[in-house]
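In the present case, backbone shapes were mapped to integers, as reproduced here:
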Amino acid sequence: MSTEPAVTEPEQPPADEVAPDTSGKIRVLVVDDARTNRQFVGDLILQRGLGDECVYAEDGLVAFKALRSAPIDLVVCDLDMPRCDGLKFLRLKATDAAFANIPVIVVTGAEDVTRKVQALTTGASDYVVKPFEPNELAARIGVHLKLRKLQAELLSANTELQRLTQIDPLTEVANRRHLSERLDEEYLRARRYERPMSLGMLDIDYFKKLNDNYGHPAGDHALIEVAKIIKFTVRRHDFVARYGGEEFVMLLPETPADRALLAFERVRSNIEAAEIMYEGKRLPVTVSLGVASCPHQLLTKGQDLIMLADTALYDAKRSGRNRVVAAL
């Protein structure tokens, strides 16, 4: 598919507001002030199957707007253009980190080493002199598109690896290590801006007995379902982690003690009311919670919230379980 002329709509939203491209199409932006040159390069790309779609721009400013309006995989850009030339486009592109990995092949009629070096140091990935040999340009485009794909795959793999290091594999909530990092961040923010925050520590009542009576697979199923109920009950920006064994921690930013107690009571009652079934049997699952809130006179660091909530959790269990108790 070829779309000509270039983007002519009003100012587009910032790049981080552009919806991600889920079509899998390879989209190439061709920038040249001469329409015939734009069309020649676009036809070369499409006819050789290097890309699925070409977007056209007559100068660097229009090209930058095109970058901001839709996902682009590669740019073929003329260097010498009126109003906004290729160097100015490269500088504009460099202002937004979202475009850092989009390769730019600069095309120009000037065999000038100084200009070539200037383009490459400004952000160009490659350089082709006009009149170019079509096979050479096609080969360079193909190489940079392959590199772009490999970079995307590597980024995806690294992102998934990072996610796996932060997630409990059974319940798919955050793990203890991620909790420790997030707790320190939220506590420092709460102290700096004098904002409230609360933490709840939850323990499944009689979990050993549940495992003994129904088997460890049933216990694992109970953990998974409890995690689901917690995530469903708390707010989207609240933080949920598996602390270890049958214990979970919920971190509620911008939440004072009174509101936290109400939120954690909803968690407790929702778990008690849930029909957690395993192999046709309802599992008897209730939970006890200890709650600690900031500010508190005993708090000097984020981990102190864990200590206070754990003490309150012990009080909840000692006083009968299936209840929420706040730290004194």
